Amino acid sequence: MIARVTLQQFGGPEVLRIGQVEDQHPGPGEVWLEQAAIGVNPLDASQRSGAVKIPLPATPGLEGAGVVAAVGAGVTQVAVGDRVAYATGPLGGYASGRLYPAERLVKLPDELAFDEAAALLFKGITAQYLLKTTYPVGPGTRVLIYGAGGALGQIMASWAKHLGALVVGVVSRQGSVERARAAGCDEVLVFDARTLAAQVHDLTQGRRVDVVYDGVGRASFAASLDSLRPRGLLVSFGMTSGAPPAVELATLNAKGSLFLTRPSLAAHTATTTEYQERAGDVLQAVAAGIIRPRVWQRYRLADAARAHADLEAGRSEGAMVLVP
């Protein structure tokens, strides 16, 4: 028997319920993975609440790490006993064991602990495509990163700084400022939608930034646009304050021929080759000390609802993992 968290209806954290189900046997191209740690991220909460629709009933979770316990027919990428992690769908991560496509598993180096891998891979691949594909950050690039004291933001700030950028971080409260600075931010601003753009203008001597990475959504959208230089890029990839509003194309013209994109991890890991290349780049960055896996809090799998409550209340200071 395995422990599995299920979601029968959309709602608050309390709709997450844990139960027991039978083990399953892997089919062709699949493995049975005994999980040691499961990552928690804002997308899980958006899916649970119904802000991002998923078919119900469902087991949430898109990231985890563990040991391959059985393989199905035709599996050659991994073998029984391999230490592996994953960072994309299918859903089903909130469980002590699960079926998973073998080609989407990433082999882990021995020095990376399971909880570190579960806390890192999804966020690391997100940071990798945002910084290297969505906008190629390099020496002298001026970047604005929301949530710079959070799990993803700390990775992005460290990596952007390594790439040579001037990093301006935005945090939600004063208590997160030093954590964002320690991650690599040159300057850190406490978010106020009324003053943020003016602060960015002053910090950059009127040049503003080349790219804004905005995971907040509705509350920050206007301030993000106003923080960009002419022909700058707004990367709107999250919605912790709600979905960003619609924008008139004429607005982008009037504010300096701005660019706007709404990227997703799925679109940047659609092929196995691209997925594995991005994951490999993340693991290389860890090995080189460019980014560091940081686990802020570990919760029992049975306490998934509490983890979601802490996440949505803004109590987290970094990555959160569930431990079966």
Tell me about this structure.
With 324 residues, the chain is of the alpha/beta class. The chain folds into two domains: 2-113 and 293-323, Medium-chain alcohol dehydrogenases, catalytic domain (Quinone Oxidoreductase, Chain A, domain 1, Alpha-Beta Complex); 123-265, Rossmann fold. The protein is 30% helix and 27% strand. It contains ten helices and 15 strands. It has helices at residues 42-49, 114-134, 151-162, 177-183, 196-203, 221-226, 249-254, 265-268, 272-287, 304-312; strands at 2-7, 16-21, 30-40, 64-71, 83-86, 97-101, 106-107, 142-146, 166-171, 187-190, 209-214, 228-236, 259-261, 295-300, 319-323. The strands form three sheets. Strands 3, 4, 5, 6, 7, 14 and 15 form a seven-stranded mixed beta sheet that branches. α4 links the parallel β9 (166-171) and β10 (187-190). The radius of gyration is 20 Å and the shape is globular.
Attribute tags:
alpha/beta, 15 strands, Rossmann fold, Quinone Oxidoreductase, Chain A, domain 1, 27% strand, six-stranded parallel beta sheet, 324 residues
Highest CATH level, the class of the largest domain: Alpha Beta
Strand content: 25-35%
Q: What is the number of helices?
A: 10
Radius of gyration: 20 Å
CATH superfamily of the largest domain: Medium-chain alcohol dehydrogenases, catalytic domain
Biggest sheet record: 7 strands, mixed
Succession of helices and strands: EEEHEEEEHEHEHEHEHEHEHHEHE
Total tally of structural domains: 2
Distance between the terminal alpha carbons, to the nearest Å? 13 Å
> What is the percent of helical residues?
25-40%
CATH topology assignment of the largest domain: Quinone Oxidoreductase, Chain A, domain 1
- What best-fitting shape do the alpha-carbon axes yield? globular
Give the mean pLDDT: 95
The secondary structure category is alpha/beta
CATH architecture descriptor of the largest domain: Alpha-Beta Complex
Unreliable sequence segments? none
